[in-house]
From TrEMBL:
Keywords: Amino-acid biosynthesis, Aromatic amino acid biosynthesis, Transferase. It catalyses: D-erythrose 4-phosphate + phosphoenolpyruvate + H2O = 7-phospho-2-dehydro-3-deoxy-D-arabino-heptonate + phosphate. Stereospecific condensation of phosphoenolpyruvate (PEP) and D-erythrose-4-phosphate (E4P) giving rise to 3-deoxy-D-arabino-heptulosonate-7-phosphate (DAHP). This is Phospho-2-dehydro-3-deoxyheptonate aldolase. Pathway: Metabolic intermediate biosynthesis; chorismate biosynthesis; chorismate from D-erythrose 4-phosphate and phosphoenolpyruvate: step 1/7. The lineage of its organism: Bacteria, Bacillati, Actinomycetota, Actinomycetes, Micromonosporales. Pfam families: DAHP_synth_1. Belongs to the class-I DAHP synthase family.
Amino acid sequence: MTLPSVQRVSDQRIDKVIPLMTPALLHHEHPLDEDLSAAVLEGRRAVARVLDQEDDRLMVVVGPCSVHDPAAALEYADRLAATAARLADDLLIVMRVYFEKPRSTVGWKGLINDPRLDGSGDVNTGLRTARSLLLQVSRKGLPVGCEFLDPIIPQYIADTVAWGAIGARTVESQVHRQLSSGLSMPIGMKNRPDGAISTAVDAIRAAGVPHVFTGIDVSGTPAILHTRGNSDCHLVLRGGSGKPNYGAEDVAGALGQLRAAGLPERLVIDASHGNSGKDYTRQPVVVADIAEQMAAGQRGIVGVMLESFIEEGRQDLDPTAPLTYGQSITDACIGWDTTVHVLENLAKAVIARRG
C-alpha cells in the first residue's frame, strides 16, 4: 500500500507525537485566584516603579540557577520571603524561579522539559509542576521571575510572573523580541555571551514597538498575535567570554549606549555567569563592587541578579546516586548564609545611595 505523499515526506525524524495540554486546561487545573492576580499585578507595578526610578529601592532577582526540586524551591522561598520582608524598605526581592535551561550543546533542559530528571520528556507533567510551584511561591508574598525560552510556554505560566528575562543566547532572536513586545511584565535583555551590549540594546528597542507574529492563544488554537510593544524592557549586564562588565567604567559605557539609543538609562547587573567568571564564590565580590558604585551615587543600577540556593555549589545529575537536597544541578550557586549576607550588604548600599 502506498502511503500518502505528506506521510512520506513529513516527520521523517520524529519518533512520536504526544498531545500537548492547552493553556486553558492548565489554568483551570491550577487557577490564579483574585488575591494572587492582584499580587502579581502589584509585583509588576513595583518592578516597573524601581526600573523607572520612582522607587529608590534596588530590585534583586535571586534564587536557584534552575529549579529541579519543587520541595527544595519552596523551602528556599520560605526563607527568602522572611528576608524579603525584613529588607523591604531597601530591596524589592524577586525570586528567581527558572524552568527552562538553554544549553550550548546538550544537557538537562529544565523542569518543564524533563520534570522526572530522566530524559523522558514528560512536558505535560512539567507544565503542571511549574505552574503549581509558581502559584505556591506567589502565595508566600514573593514576586517571581522567569526566563522565557520556548515562545509557547508563556501562555501557560506568564500570568503568574512579575519579571521576565531573555537570555544571552536568545537576545538576538527576532522570535524572542516579538514575544517580549507582547509580554505583560518587565523584561530584562541580557548581553550576548561574548559580552556585546549593542545586541541587547537593539532587542530593547525592537521589543518596545508593536509586532505581528504567529503563536497560540489560551485555548491552544493557532493565532496571529498583534502586540502593543513593551516599554518596560531593560538591559542586563552578565559579562562576556573572559571579561566581566560590572565595573564602574563598564556601567558608564552601557548607560551611554542606552542614552545614545534614546532609551531609559537603567540596568540590572547579573553577579553570576561572565561577571563571576563562572565561579560562584566570586558573586559576593561582584556585589561588593556594585554596592560601592551605588554608595558613591550611581543611580543607573536599578537591579542585581544572584544565583543562590540552600546549599552552595553544584552537583551532577547522576541517576545512580541520590541528589544533595537544596543544591543546584546546573550552575553553581552561593549558599543561603552567604545569600543573606549579600542581600544585607546591598540594602546598606541603597541606604548609602539615598544619603
